[in-house]
Amino acid sequence: MKKFINVRRKGCKTPVEILVKDGMFEKIAPKIEAECEIIDLEGNIVIPPYVDPHMHLDYVYTANLGTQNGSGTLFEGIQRWSEQKEHLSIEEVKSRAIRGIQSEMKHGVQYIRTHVDVTEPNLTALKALLEVKEEVKDVVELQLVAFPQEGIYAYPRGDELMEEAMKMGADCVGGIPHYELAREFGEKSIHKIVELAVKYDRLIDVHCDETDDVQSRFLELLNALVLIEGIGNKTTASHTCSFGSADNSYAYRMMKLLKRSGINFVSCPTENIFLQGRQDTYPKRRGITRVKELHEEGINVCFAQDSMSDPWYPLGTGSMIHILDHGLHIAQMISPENIENALDFVTINGAKAMNLEHTYGIEEGKDANFIVLDAKNEFDAIAQRAGTLMSIHRGEYLFEMEPAKMKQQNSIFMR
Ligand code: 17E
Ligand code: FE2
């Protein structure tokens, strides 16, 4: 048993105490009597763990392995990856993916949804990630998306590979309609994705309209089909960059339909501010979806990392506070009301998109998974881009940090 005292919950002015027993939240109350180890959190903010709902763990740390992505576009990224991927081995993918997971965990992430490229005849990456998922399951929860990077129909036997991936145990059906060879194939791919999800009872997460082309409107069809099937809440539309460039008359009509289906959105702010707008001169588009407007409509939106050093994006560490900082700026969401709930974009909203509601969150009876931020309130957490002091999983430390100390050499600091 462990008792955490001086715990500042998000939105609460007065501290509480948390009792953890057998890896679960036993009790959360202002004062708890218990004979056990006591950990003083000194009024720092405690939140559920960070969630990264969109990563490509099979791609991590490959940015410098092949020819560089000179144009910086999504499409050249896909080409550069395609040139590299025949050299993959299960062991090599596993070792990079685990390094990627470690990097995210060091920042307080405990849940990751990773897309895994299945447009490769041997499904090497999927085999590797299925093994990794099992190996890390005691410390981090992975969800795997069968992701047809080179298209379900543009890639030879892509549809069969998708079906094979479902049988092997992928958790979600992925897609990339804007990459198919013509709009009709993009539409056909959306029908196929929903059909597979229904047939195998899986979640859906589609790379949807990751382009500035406003003619790319696969979101509309995806939303309609999952609305009809009643599986909107099990569905995520990732990226939807073109929706950020869409005309208002179209966007406002869509917004109502998106609300009706209950579909979730993942925006990757660092990735898409970097990849999009490449064919624009000035004005140059921001390339991210309508985060603010979707959120204000009551639609679930979360932020994700997407890449860590791959042919699309050379940086990335899995620091969700860093992603959040960018997302809030690019989406113009730093009013006091925005900041109060901003951490939701990288915690509970991501958990909702991943359909983790039943296990995720700081509540009595749930697994004792939480993180402690180096900040006393939400504003400081955002303004200071607070680090994660502790990450606790099922009541055990994944890590604990010492707060950084500064040697104050000048008297100005004393004033
Ligand atoms: N693949 C893709 O289609 N889009 C991306 N942003 C990445 C990989 C990172
Ligand atoms: Fe992605």
Helix and strand topology:
Blueprint: E1 2-9, E2 16-21, E3 24-29, E4 37-40, E5 45-47, E6 50-55, H1 74-84, H2 90-105, E7 109-117, H3 124-135, E8 141-147, H4 158-168, E9 172-173, H5 183-200, E10 203-208, H6 218-229, E11 235-239, H7 248-261, E12 264-267, H8 269-275, H9 291-296, E13 301-303, H10 320-330, H11 336-340, H12 348-353, E14 370-373, H13 378-383, E15 388-393, E16 396-400
Parallel strand pairs: 1-4, 1-5, 6-7, 7-8, 8-9, 9-10, 10-11, 11-12, 12-13
Antiparallel strand pairs: 1-2, 2-3, 5-14, 14-15, 15-16
Helix pairs in contact: 2-3, 5-6, 6-7
This protein binds 5-methylcytosine (17E) and fe (ii) ion.
Characterization of this structure:
It is a single chain. The protein is an alpha/beta fold and 415 residues long. The protein has two domains: 2-47 and 364-400, Urease, subunit C, domain 1, CATH 2.30.40.10; 50-353, TIM Barrel (Alpha-Beta Barrel). It is built from 13 helices and 16 strands. Strands 1, 2, 3, 4, 5, 14, 15 and 16 form an eight-stranded mixed β-sheet that branches. Strand 11 (235-239), helix 7 (248-261) and strand 12 (264-267) form a beta-alpha-beta unit. Helix 2 packs across helix 3 (124-135) and helix 5 (183-200) runs parallel beside helix 6 (218-229). The N and C termini lie far apart (43 Å). The model has no long low-confidence stretch (mean pLDDT 96). The structure holds 5-methylcytosine and fe (ii) ion. 5-methylcytosine (17E) is lined by residues 56, 74, 149, 176, 207, 210, 271, 306-307, 312. Residues 56, 74, 149, 176, 207, 210, 271, 306-307, 312 line the site of 5-methylcytosine (17E).
